[in-house]
Every structure is written in C-alpha cells, then in structure tokens.
Amino acid sequence: MEATRTQLADGMYLTYLPAEKFKTSLLSAQFVTPLRRETAAAYALLPAVLRRGTVSCPDMGALSARLDKLYGAHINYTVRKKGENQCVGFVASLIDDSYAPGGEKLLEPVAALLGELICDPATERGRFVPSYFESEKTNLIDAIRSIINDKREYADGRLLREMCAGEAYGIPRLGDEKDAEKLSLQKLYAQYGDLIASSRLELIYCGSARRERVEQALLEAFATLPRENVQEIALALPHAPRSEPLRVTERMDVTQGKLGMGFACGCGDTPALLMGNTLFGGSSNSKLFLNVREKLSLCYFASSVYHRQKGLITVSSGIEFENFQKAYDEILLQLQAVQQGKLDDWELEGARSTLLNAYASMGDSQGKLENFYLGQAATGNCETPEDLAAQVRDVTEERIRDAMESVTLDTVYFLTGKEQAE
Amino acid sequence: MNQSFYERIGESVYRETLPNGLQVCVVPKPGYAKKYAFFATRYGGMDTRFRLDGKWLDTPAGIAHYLEHKMFDTKEGNALQELAKNGAEPNAFTSNAMTGYYFDSTEHFEENLKILLSFVSVPYFTDESVAKEQGIIGQEIRMIEDNPDWQIYTRMMQALYQNSTARTSIAGTVESISHITAETLYQCHKAFYTPSNMILTAVGDVDPVHVVDLARSILPRERGEKIPRDYGTEPADIAQKETSMAMEVSTPQFLTGFKCTPAPEGEDYLRMSAIGDMACDILLGDSSPLYLRLYDQGLINTSFGGAFEMMPGVAYLYAGGDSRDARAVAGEIYRQAERLAAEGIDEDFYQQVRRATFGEQLRGLNSFENIAVSLTEGYFRGYDPFRFPQVFDSITKDDILAFLRENLREERAVLSEIVPKNA
Description:
The structure holds two protein chains of two kinds.
Chain A: E1 4-9, E2 12-18, E3 24-34, H1 37-50, H2 60-69, E4 74-82, E5 85-95, H3 107-119, E6 123-124, E7 127-128, H4 130-146, H5 151-163, H6 177-181, H7 185-198, E8 200-207, H8 211-221, E9 246-251, E10 257-265, H9 270-280, H10 287-295, E11 299-307, E12 312-319, H11 324-339, H12 345-361, H13 366-378, H14 385-394, H15 397-405, E13 407-416
Helix pairs in contact in A: 1-4, 1-7, 3-8, 9-12, 9-15, 10-11, 11-15, 12-14
Chain B: E1 2-6, E2 11-17, E3 23-28, E4 35-41, E5 49-52, E6 55-58, H1 63-71, E7 73-74, E8 77-78, H2 79-85, E9 89-94, E10 99-105, H3 109-121, H4 127-145, H5 148-160, H6 174-177, H7 182-192, E11 198-204, H8 208-218, E12 242-247, E13 253-260, H9 267-284, H10 289-296, E14 305-311, E15 314-322, H11 326-343, H12 347-363, H13 368-381, H14 388-394, H15 397-407, E16 413-420
Parallel strand pairs in B: 3-11, 12-16
Antiparallel strand pairs in B: 1-2, 2-3, 4-10, 4-11, 5-6, 7-8, 9-10, 13-15, 13-16, 14-15
Helix pairs in contact in B: 3-8, 9-12, 9-15, 11-15
C-alpha cells in the first residue's frame, strides 16, 4: 500500500491509504491539540455534544435515520491521547460503494455529514442546545467516574498519573472529574470555536476510492471550516526520572490486587527499547508472562507496555494481595535478566517476529491503520509500518542490552483490599 | 473439494469433510498479509454432563475452559511458545458451546498450522501441571468476579434459566475447579476433541488443498463416537424476577433479559437469529424511538445496548447499561414491546433497520475471526452463515411482529442490577 499525506488547506492534512480488499471504507477527522489540564475535559466533551445534532439533522433520531439509510454507516466520536496531544473528532465507517445493493455512492454523503457535524452543529441562540450540553456533560462525568469499574484500567491510569504528575502525559485523556463538573454552556461554545479554528485537522481515508475523489469530497465537506493561527502540535517532553522510587498504595473493596510499576527509559534507541519491552513483558512469550504467570502462578496477567512517545515502560499485573512482595521481586528480577542479556535465541527471534508480524498485519485492519497514522501525524513522525519493521530487523542483542540498562524503577502503585495489613 | 461463491457479499468458501468426519473450510482473502486458522470443538462451558463409554459423567463447572488452558502444554514444552517463536499470535477461548484455538501470522503459516493441529489433538497433562493451573485460573476467576459486567450477566442468566447449564459460569468457581484432575481432563478430551466433533477454518491468502492435506496427515483417523449431552430440562418460565448485588462501581448498572423460545437447528436457526437481531434493533437499537427518548431523558447513555443470543436449547434477548434508574428503563422497554406488539412496526423505520442490518453483517466480514467463528457456529448448528442476504430477503415485518408478540413479554423478563456499595 502506498500511503501518502498531503496538505489540503491551512493546517488540514489528508492521509490517504488506498485499499480494495475491505468491505468498508474508513474516514476519520481528528483535531490534534496540546493536552492541557485547562482544556482536556472541554475538548473531550465537544465531539459528544457535536454528535447530538447538526443544522440539517437536528437530533439523534434524524442523524441515525440518515446513517441507517446509508446502509448502517457509523460515525463515532473519539477522544485519544497521542504523546502529549489530545486528539478529538470522529471516525466514520461505511460499506464500500461496490457492495451498496442499489449501486449508490456513499463516500460523498458520509463526508458531507462529517463536515456538518464539525462545522454546522445544532445551536440555540448562538450556543449549543442546552439539553445536549447538560446530558453529554453528565455522560462525560459518568465516563470519568466509571473508569474505576475496570480495576485494571483504573490501576494503569493511576500509575501514570502518579508517575507523570505535573507533566502533560499524566493528564487523563478525558480530563478530570472536577474540571468536567466546572464546564459551562457559555464557555464551551467559545472553546469549540478555538478548537476548530486553531488546531490542526488530520483527515484519514482508507478504502477503494481514488484520491482525487476523496480530496474533492473532503474539500467540499470542510469548505466552511475556519482556519486562523493554526497551532503547532506538542512534542512530548522527556520524563524526569526519580532517584528514589515513588510508592503509592490504595485500598478498595476488591478481591484481586493490582500491582503497577513504572520505569523511566534513559535512552533514545526506540527500536531497541521496543524489542527490550517485548522480551520483558510485551507478548505472551515474554519473561513476565512465562515466569510471573506461567512458572510461578503469581498472577493471571502480567504485561508491560512501552510508551514510545514518552520513553516509559509500565508494568500491569493482577495478583493475590499477599503475593505483593513476591510479584514485585520477580518482576524486577525479570527486568534484570533482560538487562543482563540472559536471553535464549528463540526469545530474541520470537520477540522480533512478534513485532514484525504486528507491523506486517497492520495493513489488514482499517482501524489499526487509522490509529497508527493518526499517532504518527500527532507526534510529528512519518515512518510507515514498513520503516519501523526495517528498524526492528536491524536491532542487535547488544543494542537491546544497552538500551534496557538505562531503564530504572520510578513509581510503584499497589491497589489492595480494605482489610489487608501493610 | 467444494467451492461456493457468494456473489452478494463477494466471498467464497472451499469446504471438505475428511473421512474421519472433520469439516474443513477455507475462505480465500487475497491481498491480506495475515493468515488465520481457527480449530474448534463443539464443546463448551455448558457441556458438563454427558455420556462416555456407556456411563453418564458429571464434570465440574469450568472444566472445558480449564482444558483449554491445559491443551497448550505439550510433551516438549508449550505450544504458545512454539507459535510465538514463529511470530504467530496464538490464543484460545471457551464459550458456552464451543472451544476454539487460533493464531494469525504473516509468515510460516503451514508450520504454525501443524503446531495448532498437533497440540489440540494430542493431550499431555500431569497431576503437577494440572494443580499448578489452579493458581492461574483461580486468579482469572477472581478477576472476573471483580468485573461488574460479568457479575451482572451471570446473574441475569441465573435468573432467566432454572435448570439449563447455560446458567453455569464458563470459568467455574475457585471451588469447582479444585475438583479437576488430570484424569477428568483426559476423559473430556477423549469425548469431545474428536475429528467428527470439530471443524478447522482457515482465512487468508492460503492454498485450500494444502490445508486439507495437512489436516489429513496430522489428525487421527478415528471419527470418535457421538456424545449425548444433558443440558437440563428447561421450563418456559423464568427462575427469578429480579436480582441485585452491591459492588465498588461508580453508577448503577443493569441488564434486563427476555427468555425466548429456542429455534431448531438448520437454516431456521440463522433465520431466528436474524429476526431476533432486527427485533432488538427495532425495539431498542440506537436509532429506535425508545432509545432516543430515554437518551434525551438522561435515563441511558452510550453504554446502553442490546443483543439477541442463542445457544443449544436457549435463546434470549437482553439489553442494559449504566442507569440511575434501572427500574424505569426496564419498565419503558416492556411498555414499548407491548406497544409494538399491539400497534405494529412503522414501515419506513422497518426498511431503515433492514438496510442498517445488512451493512452491519457485511462489515463483520472484515474480521477474519468473525468469519471463522460464524462458519464454525453455522457448522455446529447446521446452517450456512454466508447465506444471510437470502435469509434477510425471506424475512417480513410479520415475522418480527410474531417474534415480539411471543417472546418480548414482561412475564418472560428478568432484571439484574449492580448498585454501588456505600450508596
């Protein structure tokens, strides 16, 4: 696949990903804006309010009817964190024109609706419709609160917040409950104006239509988008590592404990860290999976994630409360093994092929492609999955050892039961 | 080898039944880098009581899932590692009526397929390895017990069904799995992991003849006997009207379920499934008048949704999500079902839902896993899932109304709630 990214207008880019093998096409419109505590909750709320109605489809019933008639096209709002940027917007999925039973063209009407959702929202007296604002504000607060329902997600989020307190990377993607509660109808419309006028708009298309047709449809759909002083995206600042690890314990009425550990990477060799993390805890063949879970039966899950944009590795695990120390020691021991290069040949090649397989199969999923290319655009990177695969192929054992030696324990977060002794 | 081409959805399927009874399906997907194989047995969480060698056996709840975990052990080590070494992404799942093992890989497909076929057909357990798994699965069970979605669903099933083994949690309990031994695992494998009870599906740019040849050379020649199963005799009435539990959650959650009349196997099964899906969308899908009204009133949010599910001897339609007033939402759903049953379905809305449902089915064909699971499910229940456009053509508004009138009645409904602790 020949992926291209071109500028369509001031601060408006199209990533075009031609593909004929899918039953559907994907069209995404995402505003990329620096993640800030003051605006995170407001920007997270915006696409939800916009999704409630436009001038021509003033309520969800009218929107749904229009989408259903386009053979069940979907337009979902999304709020994502990419590096230290917040990406908010819509992802549309529509069946490919060749499968429309009546031979209809579906790309143009879906692009037009996407443009309407962003440029022509339903309003009352120069503000958003008050009932839409109120109910979506409640939904946002509920969504922020409900993170606690999934204890793993909750613990992972808490670890990052503690570790990156004071840094943009520590701000949750939906903002804070307190900030969400303070949002006002008056202010939100102005914030909407700021967002659509001054932040970069990334458009992504994946499907069988020719590029000229896609460009034409999008230029028409976004003809009235205001563009003034379009801001630069934020490049993530490096995390300042702690010399003495921060330790946080939280108590809750749960039956399984969650141990999260955050590590700072003091080295910029991304491909080597990608490999190192895959060996450590990034696959079902990693040291964490095979030792902490399979060999010692200490937990149901133990895995690690490498945060490429920020230079961090985080470990997430679910354990019996009383196994805290055992699991903690074992996780550090496994990290040490990677740092000392205690690797079998199969481990190294297995990790490499896990990563290569992931890059090679990315082109088979429109959702993964969209997420990948948005991440690249939002962090100022332009490698393709093939480029990244080539870099991974070149990584040597020595480079992995060197890169992983720079990894230091920074923060430990433990979610435990109410009755547990220290 | 039989090839069927499905023009309306642009797919084709090669099928062959081997002499040992194994069904093989290959779905060619040119242009994709990924190749996918799915090897499944008609055996799941609800198959706890069955007859083997002339004797009825009662096995512990959770044993099918336990067996799934243990199948990856081989005499040489662990099949997960073997597959991962080749860059494959292997995994497995156990549902109520099926256990499936699969991998996807961009390279070494045939080598990986050999590994898959071998480790699933050759059991290797020791008392020690079985005992060790109790720690891992015990943790998995504790994790899902903390999960409100799982609690609310399991409790709804237990309220809907009096005797059916659909009530049984697929993973079992920490107590039930403590009774599992290497011997019971061997018995279950012997009973259900036989070629005539299994199907292999490959999706991707693969050679169908090669897939069949590999299956022929690796799998046993014996068909295996047909195993009678006992799912329990299920009356039409629900077990319990309401169930509620307190957990550490932020907002109350609920599910309401309607106990529906199960469909016979064959194309009727697919037809009923399509009717149930459309009835669900018409009643409470996100473009239905009810959804829009409840959303506007703030009684539901985007977490709200519903589905129609079927398994052997069981069919139910259910819906739920977060709500401050579960009782009010459930009541509105029952009233709306009554209203539709009495007044009929708006023609424009019906056509709109038909279009959307077609698009939804087509969208599902982007996913290799979805293709393989639906072909497997279809094989086990005696229908061809790729005939959905034809089956849709045969469904009328009256079919949906008849379904609504028979099944979506308040006396057939249960309510399962999770409320916040300390509230």
